[in-house]
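Q: Give me a protein?
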Amino acid sequence: MSTFYAIAGQNESATVSAAFDDVKRVLLQNSQWAAHVLDVAGRSGARVAYAKVYGAVLGSQVVAEGPGYFLIRGTAGKNTRLMYRVEAAGEHNTRITPEGRAEGIFKVLIPIGLLFLCCVGVALTPLAYKARAAGMRRMSSKYLDAFCRYLEARLNAAAPGGQ
């Protein structure tokens, strides 16, 4: 068991022993961090390569940012995204929470798709947004442990005198 991070609940959040600014720097330096998280999680080489191809095009993006926190989304495949809320939890600790949101393109595609299905799009659109967000949150929770191990490896490598 690593002393670098501790996961709370059923992958509801994690606390890593690293400064918020260091975690943010590591994630912003590598736009394909989500593909590397899949690799750390032991996913197949083909799945990781697939994620890297899509990650090269779509990359990662800071979705929201404020004092002491940011929300980052990474590409882990064609329609698979990982999203985490990263926030300062003290001077040398950072809390990471899996998140999910319907991306901008889906906010257009979902109502159009529902309209083509002859459904009452206005009534079902919020439900579809919530389903998309729940799916993203579920995937992010699944890979929370691998995300922490990825951060541990990158931060140890970047540290002065790191392995």
